[in-house]
Amino acid sequence: MKSKKYLSILLLLLSCVSLWAQMNPGDYSIDIESGSVWCGLTLTSDETYQITLDCNETEDIVYSAVLSLGHYTCEEERLILHDDYYDYDMDLSIIDNVISVNQGFIFLNNKSIEIYNQQPSNIYPPSDDFLNQRKREIESFFDNNDLPELLFGIYSDTNKLYSIKIGWFNCFQLYFKDVLILQGKWKQQGNMLLLYDKALGHVFSLGIGNKELVGIEIPGEFGGPFFTVLKMK
User: Fold this and answer.
1) Which tens digits make up the pLDDT trace of 90-107?
2) Is residue 88 domain-shared with residue 12, that is, in the same domain?
3) This prediction's pTM
4) What is the CATH number of the domain that holds 138?
5) Residue 43 is part of which domain span?
6) pLDDT tens digits, one per residue of 162-190
């Protein structure tokens, strides 16, 4: 009887070690089952995290979009992520190297995750200069656009990385290449387009221009020093 008891305790301890090993600092790859986009998660020892989407923009250039950036905590089998810039939370369960999304990006649900580098890559938050430049661009956009008409249809950026479908019945879908990032209901508020994603429980925003939508708060905006403009196809 004692041997069975000790065996049960040993199996329980091994299970906990396996679980916490999944949450150790390092670089992780997430198989999002995309033909052209790779997803990465970095956890650092100071409890900061970064989720990125990478794709080949050309044969020689890899584009990397920082989808989310902030701090994380571990609670039993759950990984809690708080985005420091857009102020939303993600609640992920990781069991047997598979992610279950309690709250978060829907494309992560039921996807496998594995560590490939136990020394996490450096995370570089956007600089104050970059954020201030974006703020000036946003202010300039609203100064130069009164109240244009919102047109239903599909919009995309010049690099064909982002696309968004604005549909009837206030439905929308936002993609990065072939990866569905957000989906839910939109609401127009003046020349702002508010996007509510149910899976994240958060509202993002775009500016409405003349046959174009401009990124105000959308995931991936910290991927490079430019202002994402989605023009109607």
Assistant:
1) 999 999 999 999 999 999
2) yes
3) 0.83
4) 2.40.128
5) 2-117
6) 889 999 899 999 999 999 999 999 999 98
